[in-house]
Design goal:
Elements: H1 3-11, H2 21-39, H3 48-54, H4 60-85, H5 91-110, H6 114-142, H7 148-177, H8 181-201, H9 207-214, H10 227-237, H11 244-251, H12 253-282, H13 288-293, H14 296-324, H15 335-352, H16 358-386, H17 391-408, H18 413-435, H19 437-453
Helix pairs in contact: 2-6, 2-7, 2-8, 4-6, 4-17, 5-6, 5-8, 6-7, 6-17, 7-14, 11-12, 11-17, 12-16, 12-17, 12-18, 14-16, 15-16, 15-18, 15-19, 16-17
Length: 458
């Protein structure tokens, strides 16, 4: 974009960054709530035995399929949705998701066969990843870089807190009093409010699409404005953007490194999800509903991490920008070093706390959750700052890697803790986490050199 045109766009009232704070935050909060509700569709997991009986299936492998099939949509969705959103904009994929998600929830809630349930559960995952992907991608569309840290923290609240509040707490409460089907009916009812609200409130926020709409007919060779954008878009969707997430992973070491690091860190979280309730039942003899409340420790840790890291990221980045006179995405990374130490500390505490009072597990899991947010938030905010125009593809590339591993990693929880126990099993994970401390130091100190030396061809 020519410099004059760029300066004009920066001051244009149609630029979402120049919208009123109320208008921008309304969009972000709506998507945060949507992600929270969508993430709670895992709430039927405490009633898996009832699910399998009602669906006339009895295999343990099929039982695992009812959970993991949802991540299939997470694996496929970013490859399709991210490029489309960077050609046609954010609005219409979100509208499709707001229709698709409640419809699939209703079908799953009323299904009486495993095949029908599994098919629409996978489609539900595809719709859910649209919210997970485009919510954070909208943050750089509507927020100045010095305010993105807090906005990104709030945006991730829904997707992070949903699993800790949904399955172990809300799911146990609903299933104990009604049926597993009502965990899905509840989400469908919530979307009955969210979807009309979204159609009324959401607007297009992607800058290149908005600029194309306002382009005059006398631009370039005086051809009508609709001719070139349409031709360019159709060509682009079948050439460049379609493979952009994969190209980022292959040609950008920075994207690949953060994809690997966030995948490993999320792996620890998934193993905690798989074992926290079980530990409280097996070791401390809690009831299933009481064990579900233990997940609130993760919720508290996530909230502390989000509302400490976000404001700190903004203030530190602004301070360094004033000092150096230039903004670097690497100014977002210092919390990584803290997270690299807090994560193994939480894992050690969580593992060996099983020999002591159950409150030790609560503290250990909360400490881990703070460390997780210290690793995850700076990583994603860094990618958003590095590729603001292609944030959906950058986040999507990392999401695909995390989702593929997330579909299989919980299966390792049983053998790991059966062979090593909760104490040494979590200690092994902590030692692996400690091995990545030099990795975070290198990224923090030399990330700009790596980024500038290997720019991806987007």
């Amino acid at each position: 974009m020519p410099r004059d045109a760029k300066d004009e766009w920066c001051s244009d009232t149609t630029n979402p960054i120049n919208w009123s704070s109320r208008r921008r935050w309304t969009i972000l909060l709506l998507l945060t709530i949507t992600n929270l509700v969508a993430a709670m569709t895992t709430a039927f997991e405490p009633g898996l035995d009832d699910v399998m009986r009602d669906l006339h299936a009895h295999s343990k492998s099929l039982e695992a399929l009812t959970i993991s099939i949802y991540t299939l949509g997470y694996c496929i969705g970013p490859i399709i949705v991210a490029p489309i959103s960077e050609v046609y904009g954010r609005l219409w994929p979100l509208r499709v998701a707001y229709v698709m998600f409640p419809v699939t929830s209703v079908i799953c809630a009323s299904s009486h066969g495993l095949v029908l349930f599994a098919i629409f559960r996978a489609i539900m995952g595809f719709a859910g990843i649209i919210f997970v992907l485009l919510g954070p991608a909208i943050v750089p569309d509507v927020m100045m870089k010095e305010k993105r840290g807090l906005a990104w923290s709030i945006m991730t609240t829904g997707a992070i807190l949903g699993p800790t509040l949904g399955s172990p707490i809300m799911g146990g409460f609903i299933i104990e009093r009604t049926s597993w089907r009502w965990t899905l009916w509840s989400c469908a009812i919530a979307f009955g409010v969210l979807s009309p609200t979204a159609f009324f409130i959401l607007e297009e926020t992607y800058g290149p699409v908005l600029q194309a709409r306002t382009r005059t007919e006398t631009e370039l060779d005086n051809r009508p404005v609709i001719e070139e954008p349409l031709r360019v878009r159709v060509a682009a969707i079948f050439k460049g953007p379609r493979v952009r997430p994969a190209r980022m992973l292959i040609h950008s070491p920075i994207v690949l490194l953060f994809a690997i690091y966030t995948t490993i860190t999320q792996g620890y979280l998934l193993l905690l999800f798989a074992t926290l309730g079980t530990m409280f039942q097996d070791v401390y003899h809690f009831s299933p509903q009481g064990a579900g409340l233990a997940y609130l420790s993760l919720t508290v840790g996530f909230i502390i991490g989000q509302f400490v890291i976000g404001p700190y990221s903004n203030s530190y980045s602004s301070k360094m920008e004033r000092r150096s006179g230039v903004h670097k995405p690497e100014y977002r990374l210092p919390p990584l070093n803290a997270g690299a130490l807090i994560v193994p500390a939480g894992l050690f505490w969580y593992g060996w706390g099983s020999h002591l009072h159950w409150m030790m597990l609560i503290f250990g899991s909360a400490i881990f959750a703070v460390g997780y947010m210290s690793a995850f938030l700076p990583s994603m905010t860094y990618l958003v700052d590095t590729y603001p125009q292609h944030a959906a593809s950058a986040i999507g590339a990392c999401t695909v890697v995390r989702s593929i591993c997330g579909a299989f990693l919980p299966l390792a929880a049983g053998p790991l803790y059966r062979d090593l126990g909760y104490d040494w099993g979590n200690s092994l994970l902590a030692f692996v986490a400690l091995a990545f401390v030099p990795f975070t130091v290198i990224l923090t100190r030399y990330g700009d050199r790596i980024r500038l030396r290997y720019p991806p061809n987007l």
